[in-house]
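Data card: per-record layout.
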Amino acid sequence: MTITHMNERSKHLLIVDDDTRACSLLQRYLGAQGYAIRTASDAPQMDKYLQREHFDLLILDLMLPGEDGLAICRRLRALGNNLPIIMLTARGEDIDRILGLEMGADDYLPKPFNPRELLARIQAVLRRPRQTDGTPEAPIKIGFGGMEVDFAARTLTKTDGQIYSLTTGEFAVLSALLQHPRQPLSRDRLMTLARGREQGPFDRAIDVQISRLRKLLEPNPSRPRYLQTVWGMGYVFVPDNEAENETEPPVKPQ
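The structure for this 254-residue chain is written out next.
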């Protein structure tokens, strides 16, 4: 594993929700916290804003007229747009939250919610992954298996030279794992490192992100070499020499 040294961002948010009263309340509350806010009631209005302005985060309601939140999320990711997305899931069903994450959302919040909770989620998603336990800040680049993760650009360069942009969720989870090589991390610990909060009892966000990352990183995602499962606990990043040379690894792939 090779390690080669990161910064802050602005705070311009776009809220996409057809509930005009809720949008107005959030615009006032988040505006008072120092954020610049735009609101849109549907996908066409959202697209107009995205074409002419820069945003740091998208707050996207699941239930929208016309193109719904899941379809919007899927479309943006397919176009290579990795704008961080927090999905608002009025249905409150666990499957809807999982689908949102699988489509590329970085976090979700079930309605109704306390605006302070949304503020905490926004801050966690916008925060660059950095350690709060005395360990060093993230390096600029980490290389393993002939691949390279660029922390500044949030990209993955594969062995064939192809460059892939990582979503905020993928980047946060991968960053936490890569900065703790050979250290098994529980799902709760990984959630805290990546998102700044504890995992809920039915929160599959980490498992979904790990699945997405394995498809990007692993030669055979069903038998992962680098992002391995620690049964009954969570996950561990195993650097090159150990991933390639161990005949009886201490962790078993999922």
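Known properties of this structure: The mean pLDDT is 80. The chain is about 35% helix and 20% strand.

See the next section for split statistics.
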